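Discussion board: Methods & Data

I've been asked by a reviewer to show the raw model output for two of the constructs in my manuscript, not just the figures. I'm not sure how much to include, so I'm pasting the format here to get opinions. Each protein appears as its amino acid sequence followed by a line of discrete structure tokens. Is this the kind of thing reviewers expect to see in a supplement, or should I convert it first? Here is construct A:
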Amino acid sequence: MKKKRKKIFRKEAVFVLIVFLAITSFLFIQKRGEIYKVDSQKKTYLKGDVPTSNEVFATLSKDTLVLVDSADPSSLEAKEQFEQILKDMRMGYQTVDVAAETIPEFSAYQKVVILLSALDLMQERTPDLMAWVADGGNVLFGMTLFQEEILKGIDQDLGVLDSNPNNAVVSSIFIDDTFMIGGGKAYKIDEPFDAARTVSLSDDSKVYAWIDDNSKNPLVWEKDYGSGHFVIDNLGFYDRSVRGIHAASYSLLTDTAVYPVIDGATYYLDDFPAPVPAGNASFIKRDYNMSVSDFYTNVWWPDLLKLHDKYGIKYTGLVIENYEDDTSGKIKRQEDTERFNYFGSSILANDGEIGYHGYNHQPFSLDNVDYGDVYPNYKTWASTEAMAASMTELDRFIKDLFPDIETSVYVPPSNVLSAEGRQMLVSQFPQVKSIASNYFSEDFAYSQEFEIADDGMIEQPRTVSGTIWDDYAKLTAFSELNMHFVNNHFMHPDDALDEDRGAANGWAKMFESFEKDIVWIEESAPDLRKLTGSELAGAVQRYAILTVQQSQNENGLNINLGNFHDEAYLMVRLNNEAKPGNVSGGSLTHLTGNLYLLQAKEAQVTIEMK
């Protein structure tokens, strides 16, 4: 009997010990965050001497002639966008100002992009242009054209049967589903105006985009003329949000168009992990009856992890050590690290990474910057040394928390970064390989292109933000899928507290809206890679240096890639009705219509044509 009791006692003791260890482990994980592994073998960045974007572009042959009019502000707006589009597509060009320069012979070029709203300045050369196209040349009219006598003389050759002197209001753009990724639907214009020429076209004109109303006024079309052909962009506006449409139009000019893209979707979480942000907690109290801190732990972050589980999203969390506004350079270390450990470890355990955001939330600017009423709560730093001291402390703080990781991406608070602050990062913090800021020019914003800057910094602008995308954001996201095959998104935890960012709707509706947009991205571009911030930086690095040469023979389409390293991604458009067959040196994925995504695994790729 005693032996049996002793045996039972031992079983109970073991059971109690197991329960105790389980509770202890749970509390440890809850406090420290999830267990994560670091891949020390991952090759994110290229090593050695990597050229800059400008150095690469200088090597390209200039087979595209771009005609502009410096006296026309709209022409200069179009010039700014098209020159960057061609640079990003790795198409060499020569720009000629018809108001001040002589137009060269068209025969020296393969393509001509005309960024003129009126053709009177090239009146004497219009017959030469038409003869050159009839003989096999290709012309893109990249701007809405004014009605005038020269245009009337060539209208039918451009496919125009009839026109109205009153322009059409472009309220939304419907994209043919075979033309672009994300096509088959309309994209609204947030500030519509009478931007497009009102026309009706001949039956042998092929229309790719039109106004989404009863008129269906054409916005993008092409028309063969002799052995060459014309492409007409009739959008009437020129900014970064529609670059993808202009790039797609340009890709119609030749039988085949091959150009590099990035292929990546990245999701940044600014100010996370960070101390609990200040803000209006009334919406959280209203919907969840809990504190802001508990909301982030029990609702907000678990919801975002659901998106990781369902769609493979990788989050890049951007650390803010404190929200104090001391910019003197005096450092006060953050002692309360429990939230940082918990959320940071969870990010890392769910395929994400940690990036630099700030010791505090004060952008790197000196006293030569006056924020005025735009950022009334921001202060400037006392000196470059003070900025560097804060960055050194942030680096120490992250290393103490997560000693095994490498941190290489910096995101400026509120996307604000001065030239002096940027130079400080480049010269004193070589571990910062990439800056991720803003695609658009806003007040004090550090605006970027996808490129390698002249000092070697990898620039990777964020293109959309928040959980509720407005019409402009949706148009931009669509455009960038087609321009760079990229979706670079950011959001803040305090979006759920800020009425201007949709907080009054409640987090549940904000999350529902966000997931809906993610589903649209997934359905439009299911092959888009999910990347962290550093992985996207590495992808931009490979993209930014790639050059492309293409030729065709009896074997098919031959593509030679300069500055190729381990992999590259390219868009391939086949305009000659040929169908691709076997691919050597890479793999081809159909996107839509005659548009394909090429993953190059070697510097020489051959695509058989059927």
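Construct B, same format:
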Amino acid sequence: MLAVCLLTFIAMSIAAVPATTPTTTPQPPNGIPKCAIYECPVYTTLEEIGSDMWKRRIEQSAWVHKVAPTCDRTEAIGLVVGDLDAYLEDNNINESTPIILEVAENIPGPNSSCTGQSGSFPCCDQIYELFRFIPEASEETAPIPSQDSGILLMHTYAFEIYGITFLGPNHNEEEQYEKLRKYLDEQGILYYGSYYDVAVYDKPTDPQPHRNEVMITFI
């Protein structure tokens, strides 16, 4: 009789315990850890190519950007990042990621720094321009920067890019750029070959490995 009572008690105790649903760890947007901390542009992955390349659509967004008045890449980043960060801070715009560095050939022409018409930029083989994403909440209210700041505000429609992800120092970017170009050439995909973009998600003080992406806009 005692054994029957014990079995009945155990059965009732088990029935009283609510069933638990296994929990899953939320994944960061687009699998990019920093996008779970800071707001990123809205990405739509259109195609995964191998383990590191992809085709992506960047949805409509707003950016501030500025051309660096120097031929030195490291100096360019140091000169411009502070100006873009100050614009965000002065206008109470939340910090975002990534910082995008555009590396473009300095092609002689009416708007080239080699003509001397601008009066402020040296004649370089490459032009460096930095972009900061404006979070969606501030997209419509972000003020136009002052003309003397050299900063421009840009609103873009959705556009598509090919890219390659790599972990580690940024100096690997040229190798990754050539790898991505080779793939596009082999596939017969037309793209703008006079510039490419490097998306940097981590601050220099963050522990390695840092996530970086090289991106090419196709025609």
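Answer (T.O., handling editor elsewhere):
This is acceptable in a supplement if you add a one-line summary per construct. For B, something like: Confidence is low (pLDDT under 50) at residues 1-15.
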